[in-house]
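Question: does this match?
>
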Amino acid sequence: MDYRRLGKSGLRVSEFSFGSWVTFAKQVDIQPAKELMTAAYDSGINFFDNAEGYEAGRSEEVMGQAIHELGWSRDSYIVSSKVFWGGAKPTQKGLSAKHVTDAAHAALKRLRVDYLDLYFCHRPDVDTPIEETVRAMHNLVTQGKVLYWGTSEWNAQQITEAHLVAKANNLTPPTMEQPQYNLFERDKVEGDYRPIYDTFGLGTTIWSPLSSGLLTGKYNEGIPQDARAALPGYEWLKEQFTSDKGLARIEKARALGRIADDAGLTLTHMALLWCLNNPRVSTVILGASRLSQLQDNLKALDHKAKLTPDVLDAIEKVMQNRPAEPQRF
């Protein structure tokens, strides 16, 4: 396991990290959670990702109990939460100073920690001034309850505004962004954010590197019963695979599988290594409901040398979706 700086910060995060979206408290209870987290931790993973919106906070409760029972030293791991979807009442959602603060305190209790290493604004909030959100985050940092704050699925303009507000008011700016990034979703990481990586020292903790399982090849012949897309409440995900766009992506996944075979890789490993190949990626968040899945994902690190320039070129010929270079005048 190698480690990368989280943007310009001094924090070093493992190149693979482990997240609990969909799995913890949905598919995974405390005992399998402990097994998954132990395997991740023992492999060198030091960042564990969570959010208030994952199973209405129950995901954080499972992770917090697992960490407590495993007895890890607090200085040996990084844990995160995200704020936006905390409940149905007006004060339980969004990025108001009240909800940002209340959600942080609730996450601390659920995760059983004294501070959050990383705290993300899970989505932009058009109804709350960015200055209010930045100031709320700054206050949590100065109180020692949050070490680094960031954003998730914000655009470059919104991130820029947060930095300008922070600079103008002597407040703590965001350190990192958590965008979706995989072979099918490239525009933000490779396009929109391109001008701000060096300007602000932006770090990225990318999610869905396997495009919700599409880049494992398991949807090539339909939707398996044990897949995320078959879970109750995730019909929206199922539609992504059965729509015309989804079916076209499955055809590309089949073509990518042939490239992986020729390179001596599995499609899963090739897709994960492709994400890691981008130096702007600080860490790739893995998700797994079974220990065998996580163990297989981790084995990708043994095959970095197989992702050669020729393989990368072959991938681009199939995808044909690389964001255009910005025009220079």
